[in-house]
Amino acid sequence: MIERDIKKELLLCAREYPVVTVTGPRQSGKTTLARAVFPDHGYVSFEQPVMREQFRSDPLGFLKRYRDAAVFDEVQNVPRLTSYLQQEVDDRPRPGRFILTGSQHFALSERVSQSLAGRTAVLELLPFSISELRRAGTLAAELDDVMWQGAYPPVHDRKLRPRRWYADYMATYIDRDVRKLSAVHDLETFHRFMRLAAGNVGQLVNTSRLGSDCGVDHKTVRRWLDILQASYIAHLLPPFYRNFRKRVVKTPKLYFYDTGLVCHLLGINEPGQLETHPLKGAVLENWVFSELSKLLLNRGEAGRMYFWRTHGGQEVDFIIERGPAVTGIEVKAGMTPRPALAASLKNALENWPEPQRKAVLVYGGDSRLESSDCLFLPWTQVETAIDN
After folding, report:
1. Is beta strand 375-378 parallel, antiparallel or unpaired with respect to 234-237?
2. What's CA 146's distance to the chain center, in Å?
3. Do the beta carbons of residue 215 and residue 208 sit within 8 Å?
4. Closest CA to 269 of 166, 136, 155, 176
């Protein structure tokens, strides 16, 4: 098993809360992580119909069998579980008793917040980070290979062909979740929407244009975007709203959590096609988004990443807030760290009132260069962008 960066935060939470909830996309390694970190806990998978039926027929009797400690897997399949756990942990609030995993963001989060507020920590596990792949010795040497392979564990643990695996992932998991989460009857149109969404990564969300391009109305697009977010496939990155005497854009930007899936949806069948692909820069920006997301989530620091754009054209790809410190991060696909590349980033950050602000430019080369006003960071060191 490849050791996960989130393990430290998971153990800390298990010492503080009677319940820890681990959510994330299907096949991101939630079950493997939970069972490896808590080998002495009982284990129940609610993907199995027999286990769901046993719980539904006698919830109290079922929980009595696992009341000491248990990992409950895919709990979105048994919505009433959290209500019964509430009384159980109120009676015996010993830390680390129950570890819950689930693959549906909004539905699961809503039930957890209603029934287990104050009783559970919620962690989000995404596919492998660059540091995890490097530690396991499976990180590709070339950036295009890294982006094309993506970071889902089966591709790396089992050495599966990315092109084949992502096609199966679409059919086996995404389509199934789509049918569960919403009455999507025309999967072909939904697939077309996903391909169009992949072609708009890093762009401001325009539901009317997306709807027109795939033949549905903007309300349907909004509902389908909710499905992608609920399944941990995509994320709408919010803008930074604070107005520094400038009119700022308030529309979110669209990103996917994994560039392997983006490449599959774009029809990029081998990494060599990325070299001259017109969307290579957008795919790299998406890859940096996913790595920064993993970095923050693995530390339990969700909800601190934004972008910033004014109507006048000033833009910062990513803004990371950590206390009084603000990091502005720009992404460029070029391999030469020219100072001109960072000019707009440095100019934009000059408008920020925070005294602790820094500029970081992540690029496609391999040399790290530091100056008094900007850090040029090669893609291989993206996980150090926040702390430097």
Report:
1. unpaired
2. 17
3. no
4. 166
Q: Tell me what the mean pLDDT of segment 223-249 comes to.
A: 82
Both structure tokens of 180: 């569960």
Instruction: Tell the burial category of 221 from Cβ atoms under 10 Å away from its Cβ (0-12, 13-18, 19+).
Output: buried
Place of tokens 């027109």: 212
User: Which amino acid is residue 184, in one-letter code?
Assistant: V
> pLDDT averaged over the chain?
90
pLDDT tens for residues 304-343? 899 988 877 788 999 998 877 889 999 999 998 888 778 8
Q: Does residue 89 contact residue 19 with C-beta atoms inside 8 Å? A: yes
Pick among 3.40.50.1980, 1.10.10.10, 3.40.225.10, 3.40.50.2300: CATH of 130-279: 1.10.10.10
Percent pLDDT > 70 in the chain is 94
Q: Do residues 305 and 292 lie in contact, with contact meaning Cβ atoms separated by under 8 Å? A: yes
What CATH number was assigned to the domain covering residues 7-124?
3.40.50.300
Structure tokens at 379: 């893609």
- Residue 7 identity: K
Q: Output the pLDDT for position 246.
A: 61
DSSP 3-state of 15: coil
Q: Are 234 and 262 in contact (CB under 8 A)?
A: no
Q: E strands within the chain?
A: 19-23, 42-45, 70-73, 98-102, 120-124, 234-237, 253-256, 305-309, 315-322, 325-332, 356-363, 369-370, 375-378
Residue ranges covered by each domain of the chain: 7-124, 130-279, 305-384
* Least confidently predicted of 142-151, 174-183, 223-232, 242-251: 242-251
Residue 366 to residue 353: CA distance in whole angstroms: 32
Does residue 158 register a pLDDT over 70? yes
**What average pLDDT score do residues 83-97 get?**
93
- Two tokens at 286? 């998406």
